[in-house]
Write a structure and sequence with these properties.
single chain, 265 residues, five-stranded antiparallel β-sheet, 12 strands
Length: 265
Protein backbone atom coordinates (compact mmCIF):
# COMPACT_ATOMS: atom_id res chain seq x y z
CA UNK A 1 0.00 0.00 0.00
CA UNK A 2 2.81 2.42 0.86
CA UNK A 3 4.56 1.58 -2.39
CA UNK A 4 1.36 2.22 -4.36
CA UNK A 5 0.80 5.53 -2.58
CA UNK A 6 4.38 6.57 -3.32
CA UNK A 7 3.96 5.72 -6.99
CA UNK A 8 0.69 7.67 -7.16
CA UNK A 9 2.30 10.72 -5.58
CA UNK A 10 5.23 10.56 -7.99
CA UNK A 11 2.90 10.17 -10.98
CA UNK A 12 0.78 13.13 -9.92
CA UNK A 13 3.87 15.23 -9.36
CA UNK A 14 5.09 14.35 -12.83
CA UNK A 15 1.74 15.33 -14.33
CA UNK A 16 1.89 18.62 -12.48
CA UNK A 17 5.33 19.36 -13.91
CA UNK A 18 4.13 18.46 -17.41
CA UNK A 19 1.06 20.69 -17.28
CA UNK A 20 2.72 23.66 -15.59
CA UNK A 21 6.15 23.66 -17.23
CA UNK A 22 6.40 21.39 -20.27
CA UNK A 23 3.10 21.98 -22.09
CA UNK A 24 3.36 25.81 -21.99
CA UNK A 25 6.90 25.63 -23.35
CA UNK A 26 5.69 23.32 -26.13
CA UNK A 27 2.98 25.82 -27.05
CA UNK A 28 5.51 28.65 -27.03
CA UNK A 29 7.85 26.68 -29.31
CA UNK A 30 5.06 26.03 -31.79
CA UNK A 31 4.01 29.67 -31.83
CA UNK A 32 7.58 30.93 -32.16
CA UNK A 33 8.62 28.76 -35.08
CA UNK A 34 5.38 29.27 -37.02
CA UNK A 35 5.75 33.06 -36.89
CA UNK A 36 6.72 33.88 -40.46
CA UNK A 37 7.54 37.51 -39.59
CA UNK A 38 10.63 36.59 -37.59
CA UNK A 39 13.95 37.09 -39.33
CA UNK A 40 16.67 34.43 -39.34
CA UNK A 41 19.40 36.91 -40.25
CA UNK A 42 20.50 39.35 -37.55
CA UNK A 43 21.91 41.68 -40.21
CA UNK A 44 18.50 42.32 -41.76
CA UNK A 45 16.30 41.98 -38.66
CA UNK A 46 14.42 45.10 -37.54
CA UNK A 47 16.06 47.23 -34.88
CA UNK A 48 14.31 50.55 -35.53
CA UNK A 49 12.03 52.39 -33.10
CA UNK A 50 8.69 50.81 -32.26
CA UNK A 51 7.20 54.23 -31.53
CA UNK A 52 6.57 53.59 -27.82
CA UNK A 53 9.04 55.98 -26.19
CA UNK A 54 8.35 59.74 -26.14
CA UNK A 55 10.43 61.82 -28.54
CA UNK A 56 13.30 63.29 -26.45
CA UNK A 57 13.24 66.49 -28.51
CA UNK A 58 9.61 67.04 -27.50
CA UNK A 59 9.70 65.93 -23.84
CA UNK A 60 11.78 67.89 -21.35
CA UNK A 61 11.02 65.73 -18.29
CA UNK A 62 13.21 62.86 -17.17
CA UNK A 63 12.15 59.39 -18.34
CA UNK A 64 12.98 55.83 -17.28
CA UNK A 65 11.47 53.00 -19.30
CA UNK A 66 12.06 49.25 -19.06
CA UNK A 67 11.48 46.97 -22.03
CA UNK A 68 11.39 43.27 -22.82
CA UNK A 69 11.42 41.63 -26.25
CA UNK A 70 11.67 38.03 -27.38
CA UNK A 71 15.25 36.88 -27.79
CA UNK A 72 16.66 36.17 -31.24
CA UNK A 73 16.10 32.88 -33.08
CA UNK A 74 15.37 29.74 -31.02
CA UNK A 75 16.03 31.51 -27.73
CA UNK A 76 12.92 33.61 -28.24
CA UNK A 77 10.71 30.54 -27.77
CA UNK A 78 11.82 30.38 -24.16
CA UNK A 79 12.74 33.86 -23.06
CA UNK A 80 13.15 37.57 -23.52
CA UNK A 81 15.92 40.15 -23.55
CA UNK A 82 15.36 43.09 -21.19
CA UNK A 83 16.89 46.55 -21.03
CA UNK A 84 16.43 49.97 -19.42
CA UNK A 85 16.25 53.24 -21.35
CA UNK A 86 16.78 56.50 -19.47
CA UNK A 87 16.72 60.21 -20.34
CA UNK A 88 17.56 62.91 -17.77
CA UNK A 89 15.72 66.22 -17.76
CA UNK A 90 16.53 68.31 -20.80
CA UNK A 91 18.52 65.56 -22.55
CA UNK A 92 17.88 65.09 -26.27
CA UNK A 93 18.76 61.38 -26.34
CA UNK A 94 18.23 58.15 -24.40
CA UNK A 95 20.86 55.94 -22.78
CA UNK A 96 20.31 52.18 -22.85
CA UNK A 97 21.44 49.94 -19.99
CA UNK A 98 21.80 46.31 -21.10
CA UNK A 99 24.03 43.25 -21.24
CA UNK A 100 25.10 41.94 -24.65
CA UNK A 101 26.24 38.32 -24.78
CA UNK A 102 28.31 38.44 -27.95
CA UNK A 103 30.48 41.20 -26.49
CA UNK A 104 31.80 38.74 -23.91
CA UNK A 105 32.30 36.08 -26.58
CA UNK A 106 34.58 38.55 -28.38
CA UNK A 107 36.60 39.29 -25.26
CA UNK A 108 34.77 42.48 -24.33
CA UNK A 109 32.59 43.52 -21.42
CA UNK A 110 29.04 42.33 -20.89
CA UNK A 111 27.52 45.68 -19.92
CA UNK A 112 26.74 48.20 -22.60
CA UNK A 113 25.61 51.66 -21.47
CA UNK A 114 25.35 53.83 -24.53
CA UNK A 115 23.18 56.24 -26.45
CA UNK A 116 20.63 54.30 -28.46
CA UNK A 117 17.08 53.74 -29.62
CA UNK A 118 15.10 53.31 -26.39
CA UNK A 119 12.23 51.29 -27.83
CA UNK A 120 13.82 49.51 -30.76
CA UNK A 121 12.77 46.13 -32.09
CA UNK A 122 15.10 43.50 -30.70
CA UNK A 123 16.30 41.80 -33.89
CA UNK A 124 12.77 41.70 -35.27
CA UNK A 125 10.88 41.25 -31.98
CA UNK A 126 8.44 43.98 -30.94
CA UNK A 127 9.23 45.25 -27.43
CA UNK A 128 6.85 45.28 -24.47
CA UNK A 129 6.93 48.24 -22.08
CA UNK A 130 7.32 46.98 -18.51
CA UNK A 131 7.84 50.22 -16.61
CA UNK A 132 7.41 53.92 -17.38
CA UNK A 133 8.56 56.58 -14.92
CA UNK A 134 8.58 60.29 -15.69
CA UNK A 135 9.24 63.38 -13.63
CA UNK A 136 11.87 65.80 -12.50
CA UNK A 137 14.71 65.71 -10.02
CA UNK A 138 13.52 62.46 -8.40
CA UNK A 139 13.81 60.59 -11.72
CA UNK A 140 17.21 62.16 -12.41
CA UNK A 141 18.33 60.83 -9.02
CA UNK A 142 17.16 57.31 -9.94
CA UNK A 143 19.09 57.49 -13.22
CA UNK A 144 22.25 58.43 -11.32
CA UNK A 145 21.69 55.44 -9.02
CA UNK A 146 21.30 53.15 -12.03
CA UNK A 147 24.74 54.23 -13.21
CA UNK A 148 26.18 53.68 -9.74
CA UNK A 149 24.56 50.24 -9.35
CA UNK A 150 25.72 49.19 -12.80
CA UNK A 151 29.32 49.92 -11.86
CA UNK A 152 28.97 47.36 -9.03
CA UNK A 153 27.51 44.54 -11.16
CA UNK A 154 29.75 41.52 -10.50
CA UNK A 155 29.48 39.77 -13.88
CA UNK A 156 30.74 42.35 -16.36
CA UNK A 157 33.11 39.79 -17.91
CA UNK A 158 30.77 36.79 -17.80
CA UNK A 159 27.68 35.70 -19.75
CA UNK A 160 25.65 32.50 -19.93
CA UNK A 161 22.31 32.14 -21.69
CA UNK A 162 21.16 29.66 -19.04
CA UNK A 163 20.73 29.84 -16.13
CA UNK A 164 22.70 33.10 -15.98
CA UNK A 165 24.28 35.54 -15.57
CA UNK A 166 22.74 37.14 -18.65
CA UNK A 167 20.87 40.28 -19.69
CA UNK A 168 17.96 39.53 -17.36
CA UNK A 169 20.32 38.89 -14.44
CA UNK A 170 21.70 42.38 -14.97
CA UNK A 171 18.33 44.14 -15.13
CA UNK A 172 17.08 42.22 -12.07
CA UNK A 173 20.25 43.29 -10.25
CA UNK A 174 19.63 46.96 -11.09
CA UNK A 175 16.00 46.62 -10.03
CA UNK A 176 17.00 45.27 -6.62
CA UNK A 177 19.52 48.09 -6.17
CA UNK A 178 16.94 50.72 -7.19
CA UNK A 179 13.70 49.34 -5.69
CA UNK A 180 11.84 52.58 -6.42
CA UNK A 181 11.42 51.23 -9.95
CA UNK A 182 9.00 48.61 -8.55
CA UNK A 183 10.00 46.54 -11.56
CA UNK A 184 8.21 43.29 -12.29
CA UNK A 185 10.12 41.16 -14.78
CA UNK A 186 8.09 38.64 -16.81
CA UNK A 187 8.36 34.90 -16.14
CA UNK A 188 10.09 34.61 -19.53
CA UNK A 189 13.02 36.70 -18.28
CA UNK A 190 15.18 33.63 -17.76
CA UNK A 191 18.18 34.53 -15.63
CA UNK A 192 16.38 37.04 -13.40
CA UNK A 193 16.57 34.56 -10.52
CA UNK A 194 20.32 34.04 -10.82
CA UNK A 195 21.46 35.78 -7.65
CA UNK A 196 24.86 37.49 -7.49
CA UNK A 197 27.89 35.73 -6.07
CA UNK A 198 26.15 32.49 -5.16
CA UNK A 199 23.43 34.11 -3.07
CA UNK A 200 20.43 32.06 -1.99
CA UNK A 201 18.17 34.70 -0.43
CA UNK A 202 17.40 38.12 -1.90
CA UNK A 203 14.78 40.78 -2.34
CA UNK A 204 12.40 40.26 -5.25
CA UNK A 205 13.32 42.49 -8.22
CA UNK A 206 10.30 44.70 -7.45
CA UNK A 207 11.56 45.25 -3.91
CA UNK A 208 8.15 44.27 -2.52
CA UNK A 209 8.97 40.74 -1.35
CA UNK A 210 11.60 38.06 -1.13
CA UNK A 211 12.89 35.07 -3.05
CA UNK A 212 15.05 32.02 -2.59
CA UNK A 213 17.07 30.66 -5.50
CA UNK A 214 19.62 27.89 -5.96
CA UNK A 215 21.91 29.00 -8.81
CA UNK A 216 18.88 30.25 -10.73
CA UNK A 217 17.69 26.68 -11.26
CA UNK A 218 15.33 26.04 -8.35
CA UNK A 219 13.53 28.41 -6.07
CA UNK A 220 10.48 30.46 -5.26
CA UNK A 221 9.37 34.06 -4.94
CA UNK A 222 6.64 35.81 -2.97
CA UNK A 223 6.03 39.53 -3.36
CA UNK A 224 3.24 42.09 -3.52
CA UNK A 225 4.03 43.04 -7.12
CA UNK A 226 5.08 39.68 -8.58
CA UNK A 227 2.69 37.47 -6.60
CA UNK A 228 3.81 33.86 -6.22
CA UNK A 229 6.37 32.22 -8.51
CA UNK A 230 8.08 28.85 -8.65
CA UNK A 231 11.36 28.42 -10.51
CA UNK A 232 12.08 24.97 -11.97
CA UNK A 233 15.28 24.64 -14.00
CA UNK A 234 15.15 28.35 -14.81
CA UNK A 235 11.53 28.25 -15.98
CA UNK A 236 9.02 30.29 -13.99
CA UNK A 237 5.35 29.67 -13.29
CA UNK A 238 3.02 31.34 -10.83
CA UNK A 239 0.10 33.61 -10.18
CA UNK A 240 -0.15 37.37 -9.85
CA UNK A 241 -3.09 38.29 -7.62
CA UNK A 242 -3.35 41.93 -8.71
CA UNK A 243 -3.84 42.56 -11.52
CA UNK A 244 -4.97 38.95 -11.74
CA UNK A 245 -2.85 36.86 -14.11
CA UNK A 246 -1.24 33.48 -14.56
CA UNK A 247 2.48 33.35 -15.36
CA UNK A 248 3.64 30.44 -17.49
CA UNK A 249 7.07 29.48 -18.85
CA UNK A 250 7.47 30.27 -22.52
CA UNK A 251 4.03 31.87 -22.80
CA UNK A 252 4.59 34.63 -20.28
CA UNK A 253 1.92 36.59 -18.45
CA UNK A 254 -1.70 35.70 -19.25
CA UNK A 255 -4.30 37.93 -17.64
CA UNK A 256 -5.19 41.51 -16.82
CA UNK A 257 -2.84 44.20 -18.15
CA UNK A 258 -0.39 45.94 -15.83
CA UNK A 259 -0.31 49.72 -15.38
CA UNK A 260 3.31 50.43 -16.27
CA UNK A 261 3.26 53.86 -14.62
CA UNK A 262 1.65 52.66 -11.38
CA UNK A 263 3.15 53.89 -8.10
CA UNK A 264 5.63 56.34 -9.55
CA UNK A 265 8.09 57.57 -6.92
Amino acid sequence: MKSYSGFTLMFRSLLLVVFIFILPVGCALTSHFTNSERSNDWRTARQDSSGIAPNPSEVNEAVIQVYAARAFRWRGAFGVHTWIAAKPQGADYYTRFEVIGFSVARGGQAIRIAQGTPDGYWYGSYPTLLRDLRGGDEIDALIARLHEASSQYPYNDEYRIWPGPNSNTYIAYLAREVPELRLVLPPTAIGKDYLPEGGVFAKAPSGTGFQVSLAGLLGGLMAVEEGLEVNFLGLNAGIDFWPLAVNLPGLGRLGMPVDTSLSNP
